[in-house]
Amino acid sequence: MKSPKFSEISPVSKLLMGPGPSNVAPSVLKALAKPLLGHLDPSFLSIVDEVQVMLRYLFGTENQTTYPVSGTGSAGMETAFVNLIEPGETVLVCENGVFGRRMIDLAGRCGAQVNTIAKPWGQVFSPREVEEAISKYKPKIVSIVHAETSTGVLQPLEEICALINASGVFSIVDTVTSLGGSQLYVDEWAIDVAYSGTQKCLSCPPGLAPITFSDRALNKIKNRKTAVQSWYFDVNLIQNYFGAKRSYHHTAPVSMIYGLHEALRLICEEGVEACVARHKKNHLILKKSLESLGLRYLPKAEVILPQLNAVAIPDGVDDKTVRKRLLTEFGIEIGGGLGEFAGKAWRIGLMGVNSNECSVSTLVAALKKTL
């Protein structure tokens, strides 16, 4: 067989204003290119330690078992579910979008008895609805999405997670699109397991999934009657690498952790509260600009997710044509709708370093010429 011949890749830079990945800072790209170290090299382990400290700061937790899973945000979801759920346990999933539906699928694959409560897309759950469902189904675990990327909705969590905890039930929370962009206090809100992804508000390339486990969750996992369904994601094994033992489990993605370190360092330098405020400020600028073009949001104002704007596609406007023109003529990527919002919504991301007034004005100017 003849050897294939290709040229060196040279991707053209685009403004990534879809649901992810977001663009990254030049210093993050520079960090990715730094010399490789062994994943057990003391110098590298010091970098890992710092990543864990910064992740605890962003999650708002003192949980020692806080680390980046080797894989994208979906790997974080799988890590949370396969560790906390034992076959036969009752799990309650709160579903109001694509990622709630994925939770249902994954809980079933873990052998759980799955019950659900659902809300129409674009709406959120009230504490009373969750409390009534816990009373009805008596679950061992409740899972809920903090920032539903498919609908552009931010789910209030503080009261819900507190009542879950008070009921003696464990909570799993998807924070893939909220970490670094919305207020999140894992300890204060009594969240047992929260997972995220690097490619959204953290402005790091996709490939890692930050996760944190409470001591209460770890105790449940350590006392399982059955082995964790995944060897690769088994926190009982992995925490020996990210903890004091430094035991080999799998080869850590060294360059990705370099990139995450720099992305987290930039957020810590800005301050997480300031970072959240910046996302809110630029969302409001975008919202006002889009409304001046006659565009409207699908979720109600009080539950809009600032970093992921779900905007209704006007009647008579072709979704794919607009997105194609934005990409080919202006080098701007926005996302189309998923599931029930397919063909009905554009998903406009203002995440991480892309959450700035320049990105907003560039997109709005392009939309004016495209619509």
Structural notes for this entry:
The protein has helices spanning 26-32, 42-59, 73-84, 98-109, 127-137, 158-166, 215-222, 235-242, 254-270, 272-292, 319-330, 357-370, and strands at residues 15-16, 66-70, 90-95, 113-118, 141-145, 147-148, 153-154, 170-174, 193-195, 208-213, 308-312, 332-333, 335-336, 345-349. It has 2 domains: 26-268, Aspartate Aminotransferase, domain 2, CATH 3.40.640; 272-370, Aspartate Aminotransferase, domain 1. Helix 2 (42-59) packs across helix 9 (254-270), helix 5 (127-137) packs parallel to helix 6 (158-166) and helix 10 packs parallel to helix 12 (357-370). It is an alpha/beta fold and 371 residues long. The strands form 4 sheets. It has a 7-stranded mixed sheet, sandwiched between helices.
Order of helices and strands: EHHEHEHEHEEEHEEEHHHHEHEEEH
pLDDT averaged over residues: 97
Largest sheet: 7 strands, mixed
Distance between the termini: 50 Å
Quaternary organisation of the protein chains = single chain
User: Any idea what the radius of gyration is?
Assistant: 21 Å
Overall shape? globular
CATH fold topology of the largest domain = Aspartate Aminotransferase, domain 2
CATH architecture of the largest domain: 3-Layer(aba) Sandwich
Percent of residues in β-strands: 15-25%
The share of residues in helices is 40-55%
Structurally, the number of domains stands at 2
**Which strands sit side by side, in order, in the main sheet?**
2-10-9-8-5-3-4
Low-confidence stretches: none
Structural class: alpha/beta
Put simply, the count of helices is: 12
**Beta strand count:** 14
